Amino acid sequence: MFLTQTVPRQREIIEVVLRNGWDYMRRLLTGGKADEPQLPTPAVLKNILVDLGPVYVKLGQLMSTRPDLLNAAYIEELSTLQDEVPPVPWIDIEILIRKQLKRPLEETFSKVNPVPVAAGSIAQTHRATLIDGREVALKVQRPGIDLTIAQDIALIQGIADLVARTDFGQNYEIKSIAEEFTKALEAELDFTREAGHTDLLRRNLSRSHWFDPTQLVVAEIYWSLTTEKLLVMEWLDGVPILSASLNNSNGKDPVAERKAVTTLLFRAFFQQLYVDGFFHADPHPGNIFYLSDGRVALLDCGMVGRLDPRTQQILTEMLLAIVDLDAGRCAQLTLQLADSAQPVILSRLESDYDRMLRKYYNVSLTEMNFSQIFYEILQIARNNKIRLPSNMGLYAKTIANLEGVAQTFNPEVNLFDEIQPLITDLFRRQLLGDNPVRSLLRTALDLKSLSLQSPRQVELLLDRVTSETLRWNLSLHGLDGVRRTMDDAANRLSFSILVGSLIMGAAVISTKAQTSELSFLSSVLFAVASLLGLWLIVSILRSGRLK
After folding, report:
1. What is the pTM of this model?
2. Which value, to the nearest 10 degrees, does the dihedral of the CA atoms of residues 149, 151, 153, 155 take?
3. What confidence tier does 3 reach under pLDDT thresholds 50, 70, 90?
4. For 486, how many CA atoms within 13 A lie in the half-sphere containing its CB?
5. Staple 83 to which of 1, 121, 244, 352, CB 3.0 to 4.6 Å?
């Protein structure tokens, strides 16, 4: 169905692909030999996505969050994609805003700036003032973008269905990847989801014993005015963090201020990742603002990630394994994270990790780039056909963006220096939880239950042993072939013994034969033995086993 509905779009995509010189598609359409499909080079892929328009730019941005699928060169190239597009005329935006509001525009806002402060592929943002004087930001969905995305999603899913029939599509699980991307695109069309994420992040970061929550800001959401296509939130007056001009005019030492800001960011994201399990997954420079009052703000919660407690614990141990350059432990933890039960050669995985980590043997912790090492871990997992959960890509991308922003803002900063004081506290929290007394009481109850149950379990075991009712149920796979081989060998051995016995009996009778009846019996035994021996030889030859 999608083929007939999206023919013009298909033609446009083919033209863009050919114009950018993707050799695989060129060979395919010209009737040449088309080998296994390979991705275009990073630069060509970026150009293709830009030419295809805003939806595919957004798709490229989502792909840049998946270092578990693409190597570092693609991630780096796609990370530079910006979805800045010409803004929609104010008259169209005003119509959409009026449709979303419960009351007339003039009774809700005293002023709305018709010139957007930012314009993206899905929405654009305007500054406005409520009737009561509060400054707000209006994030307004581009009119008609939902229909455009629906058409492109149908096309992406249709192409994925076709590619999934090839070995290439099955090896890379193209269909499930396309499903993940389309769900992410659809989720960005519902601004109430982003509002909910923003509220949750705001609540989580409003309390912490690692940093001062008053120095970190997440915009307040005005739920009474927010809809699926209109997001109304607190206006935060500031500039992107890399554009901030720190000087002595505010009475703060610029060097100390830079260090304080980077420490604040690292600790805030460390809490999100390893304590809260819910994190802002797109901390690029445009989403981190330095406010006019010296506070730091996190903007745009359209892309978030989640980590369950088990994954948080594994990633914490992975952090220590990287610090210790422990290849064996890295391999074990990778398998614990794995999303599938596909068999893996552990020795090969350990060898790959050892070869990678050996580069860092003589490198100090202050010179190590954690996000780069984790990217390499994901690359090795991918090479060993290990499929990791998609949130691992968001985790790695978040760490990489955070390190990149912090090091640009403060070149002296290092991730390990910043988080080292938190490691001990983190392990204590994972071991005892937020309430140590409650955790100790729960452990005591578990031990009490175990102590009460153990004698009864031991008594049942001894009863079964003494009454000879204990049975062992073992299920060993792959033994059917061995059993059949042993049965065949036993049968042939039995026939061989039978043939030998007949020959020996016939020989004894022939030497003692005094009558014609005994001579005839001896001949019959020799004939039967010969036929059985011939049958045994033929069966061995037909089986192909002469050994």
Report:
1. 0.71
2. -150
3. very low
4. 5
5. 121
